[in-house]
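Lab manual, section 2.4: Encoding a predicted structure.

Procedure: take the sequence of the chain (261 residues), apply the prediction step described in section 2.3, and record the output as structure tokens. A sample record is shown.
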Amino acid sequence: MRTPRKGLIAALAAVLALLTACGGSGGDGQGVLRVGTLSDSPPNIYQENGNYTGFDNELLRAIAAKQGLQLEFVSTDFSALLGRVSSGQFDIGSSAIAQTPARKETVDFSDPYNFQSLSIEVKEPSPITDENSLAGKRIGVVQGTASDGWLTATAPAAQAVRFPNDAAALTALKSGSVDGSVFDQATAEQYVASNPDVKLKVAKSFTTDTPHGFAVKKGNTELANKINEGLKQVIADGTWERLHQQFMPTAPVPDQFRANG
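Recorded output:
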């Protein structure tokens, strides 16, 4: 006859087995992968009608569909994103993440799926025309981003004003509490188009050779390989170009991402 203690142990074992079967997310396609992303950085990553969308997120969805992966998108600030990927809170980081040497010490990256382009954005009228006119000016950047690193390295005489997200940096620019802000190029151009009454202007844009990648926890080569394989598939069938045209129609398409590239 089974004792109550043995019955309790058996019940706990059954619960653990169920959790293991349903909740794992190691990139094997059997669990739901938690994707850390942003809600306010169009056209790459943003939230619309309760849905996380944008070029990066829709590209990741297409990759996941090719590889049989299930995704759950969760909003976070960029400054916390890579730490949460590193700790395992997120399986994937999707946020136009520039693959810098410092970041590669924290997380692993997928193969490149785009390249970093930045813009200096101002509110007219403004004396700022390029990086050489930033000295002594209050310039908004999102903390920990490529824009933050670029401003520190390129215009050390500027006063960097760091914000947790693009929305806060944009609000400061519109109100005049900063003299300019540095955003991803596509984001800056969209802010100009969506705020005609504020008279925003892109003072200068420039493309870098720094690639964007999806971030995964260090050592999770199985998941990285699945993302890379899916990326090859969505490039080959033209999905990459279709999404790029949908979200970034004015940006150039590097040859390596063309269906016949």
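Check your result against the sample. Residues 11 and 185 are 55 Å apart (CA to CA).
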